[in-house]
Amino acid sequence: MKIATYNVNGVNGRLAVLLSWLEEAKPDIVCLQELKAPQEKFPEAAIHAAGYTAIWHGQKQWNGVAILAKGMEIQEIGRGLPGDPDDLQSRYIEAVINGIVVVCLYLPNGNPAPGPKFDYKLKWLDRLAARAKSLLEHHTPVILVGDFNVIPTERDVYKPERWTADALFRTEVREAFHRLVAQGWTDALRTLFPEETIYTFWDYFRDAYGRNAGLRIDHFLLSPEISGKLASGGVDRHVRGWEKTSDHAPVWIRLED
């Protein structure tokens, strides 16, 4: 089973890119982030024509997450990260697919830091950790998938000294991420490629993609019940070089049966 995550940076504006990648990569399950589309504007017909069923949590102009599956039923568990009933941002959706709990998330950016957006990010991380711990207690296969907006280590960013004050790399954020992983989750890409330089995002400015000045911020965290099934993975880096593409590249893992 091939599972992918892709921050599309506008699902309608970059629909052609998304559909081309789906045809090329043929993932079985896809988690999308940053749809930038209200609920009624999600391109369900085009996604269905490509062979995928979908559930999504949209929001006008900003945020938005979706889960796609090919030839499998998607049983939605819930939408919206528990812990704050006043949080209306569309950043989180859960579903069961083929016996696996798939969590698609789009963690807040948090900039500028310090400030209210950074405080929201830290609280969101605390809520995610609480939900993740609850999911682990069920002892079922779970995957936390998406754009975490967290650079875990210096190995995961080009010239880390330039990012020390950024909300993606601040000490508080990295520590929160490491506490989350320490619950028992496996960082799939880093497990597969322990020493390699791997980026999943390249800014549009200063020829970041051409210089390979990137970040690794799109992650798969696997619960103990499924981490042993991890067979391979990678980044479809070339998609970042396509015309009118997202500033993220699709990232994927493959699980054994």
Automatic annotation (TrEMBL):
The record marks D218 as: Important for catalytic activity. One of its GO terms (molecular function) is DNA binding. The record marks N149 as: Transition state stabilizer. It comes from the Bacteria. Its cofactor is Mn(2+); Mg(2+). Probably binds two magnesium or manganese ions per subunit. The record marks H248 as: Interaction with DNA substrate. Residues 4-248 form the Endonuclease/exonuclease/phosphatase domain. PROSITE patterns: AP_NUCLEASE_F1_1, AP_NUCLEASE_F1_3, AP_NUCLEASE_F1_4. GO terms for biological process: DNA repair. The keyword Mitochondrion does not apply. CDD domains: ExoIII-like_AP-endo. Signal peptide: none annotated. Mg(2+) binds at N7, E34, D147, N149, D247, H248. Keywords: Hydrolase, Magnesium, Manganese, Metal-binding. InterPro entries: AP_endonuc_1, AP_endonuclease_F1_BS, AP_endonuclease_F1_CS, Endo/exonu/phosph_ase_sf, Endo/exonuclease/phosphatase, ExoIII-like. NCBIfam families: exoDNase_III, xth. Belongs to the DNA repair enzymes AP/ExoA family. This is Exodeoxyribonuclease III. It comes from Flavobacterium magnum.
